[in-house]
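Q: My labmate handed me this sequence with no annotations at all. I'd like to see what the chain might look like in three dimensions before we decide whether it's worth expressing. Could you predict it?
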Amino acid sequence: MIRDPVEITSFRVYGKLKHRDAHDAVLRCAFALASSYNQVPSDYPIFGEFLRTLLRLGHENQTALSKLEESYKPKLGNCFPSRDEACVAIFSRYNITIQEIESVEKLMRKIISLPAYVEHIVFDKLVSVDY
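A: Here is what I predict for the chain of 131 residues:
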């Protein structure tokens, strides 16, 4: 996140601005971010598992986090390729094999708390092409 989760999750009670503790703010932002991509299929390679991890470990908000919802997100259509088609495209662009995809997804399923630092060759390959 580029913005402070404590700022994003702040709220008002009787006109007075209240802040959540930092860890709770991170968990609420994680859940809100994942929820905002609800049209992404859960089996979509890498990103689907990432979103499921945020939903699994994040905290649901009672009210929408408009500051997060208003932030820039790419527009996603309602038509997604199958998992197999997506894996072929990922291999074509990033040279990431299905075994590497399955390995990083398995690693993400092992995350037990947020925030988490995850290091895997898949992320190196993604960065080398797109950044």
